[in-house]
Amino acid sequence: MTRPYNVAFTMDPSRTEGVLTSSLLDRLARSCTILESSPLRSFTQGNAPDVLRRTDILITGWGCPAIGRDILEIAPELKLIAHAAGTVKGFLSPDVLHAGIAVTHAAEANAIPVAEFALAAIIFANKHVFRFRDIYRSDRNRARTFSLTSRPIGNFKRTIGIIGASRIGRRVIELLEPFHFRILLHDPYVGARNAAALGVESVSLDELMRLSDVVSIHAPALPSTQGMIDRRHLALMPDGATLINTARGIIVNQDDLIEELRTGRIDAIIDVTYPEVPEASSALYDLPNVFLTPHIAGAIGNEREMLGEYIVEEIERFVEGEPLRSAITATALETMA
User: Fold this and answer.
1) Structure confidence by residue, pLDDT tens digits, 251-271
2) Paired residues of 292 in beta bridges
3) CB 60 within 8 A of CB 20
4) Which end of the chain is more exposed for a tag (fewer CB within 10 A), N or C?
5) How is the chain split into domains, by residue range?
């Protein structure tokens, strides 16, 4: 190819601010021609058809339109879709991959803040940080908190259960390595030998729930994982254990979880729910043993630049004819988060 690759963008600017900084755009312009600096919000309106007709590389992000078979006619020169975010599952049709268009994504970069969030949650959960905070705030003295420090809490020799050896799950395992933790893993696609290579013990889901002081979920949302953590599994958790979910809310039966949490027997640190925003009347907002956050474990604020940097590097590799680090296949699309 003699001419530079032409690049266009499609994403929601209000959701992707900070992903592609001015310095990253300047860097991108050194290897490609940017056809239109403003992201396309539609593939059929305004000048979008003309831009897409000349596009070789389409950079997508949160809020981009669905991309299916129709893109093959609208963008006949398209060779690469580079998603400057995590999963492409919600908007990309397998037809695009079957047509031979390369697809890559920045999920590897997005895994970093999620894993860091999970690590912080695990450490805080074992020290019962939120319970100490609430008591201290209520009493405004240390009479009760001091006596609690003698209880069997803390991070020494605790057992951590990881559900799913996804890219995030594996990164969490790496981050846990320096601590004095026993790490259990449940993943039906990872056998005992591969688990040992990761430095963890492969166990059944029941064993993991029964033995872990903290359970951290990192499985993908698939038909086989929807509601996989239910009333029976939650009942297996030891008293005082904590469930952490930074994966997908649909993996846990939310009604069962609320019922178990109402007993006060276990705690939960929840960044994702199903539905994505619980009803205003949901007990998750009010239960004292729940630490609820609005899906912030992934890249937010200045962390978003990691996504843009990763994708610009992927595009540079593509332009130079080098293999993509995070190429997606049609088979991988079926089982990815």
Assistant:
1) 999 999 999 999 999 999 999
2) 270
3) no
4) N
5) 5-105+301-335, 110-292
Is 121 buried (19+), middle (13-18) or exposed (0-12) by CB count in 10 A?
buried
List 210's β-bridge partners, or say none: none
**pLDDT confidence band for 330 (50 / 70 / 90):** confident
The CA angle 57-8-326, to the nearest 5 degrees, is: 40
What is the pTM for the complete model shown? Answer: 0.94
Query: Residue 81 pairs with which residues in a beta bridge?
Result: 58, 103
Burial label, 298 (beta-carbon count in 10 A; 0-12, 13-18, 19+): buried
Take residue 269 and report the two structure tokens written for it: 């640190």
Determine the Cα–Cα distance for residues 171 and 114; give it in Å rounded to an integer.
Answer: 9
Tell me which residue of 280, 282, 279, 281 sits closest to 268, measured CA to CA: 282
| CATH topology (fold) of 5-105+301-335 | Rossmann fold (3.40.50)
User: 319 and 32 in contact (C-beta within 8 Å)?
Assistant: yes
A 10 A CB-CB count for 199 gives 12
pLDDT band at 332 (very low <50, low <70, confident <90, very high): confident
Cis peptide before 275 (omega within 30 of 0): yes
Domains 5-105+301-335 and 110-292 share a fold: yes
Closest Cα to residue 124, out of 278, 279, 335, 269?
269
Of 186, 155, 181, 193, nearest to 169 (Cα)?
186
Q: For residue 277, give the amino acid letter.
A: V
Strand segments (E) across 115-239: 159-163, 182-186, 201-202, 214-217
301 conformational bin, left if phi > 0, alpha if psi -120 to 50, beta if neither: left
How many other CB atoms are there within 10 angstroms of residue 122's CB atom? 26
Confidence of residue 331 (pLDDT cuts 50, 70, 90): confident
Angle at alpha carbon of residue 326, lines to 321 and 329, rounded to 5°: 95
> What's domain 110-292's superfamily in CATH?
NAD(P)-binding Rossmann-like Domain (3.40.50.720)
Which amino acid is residue 200, in one-letter code?
V
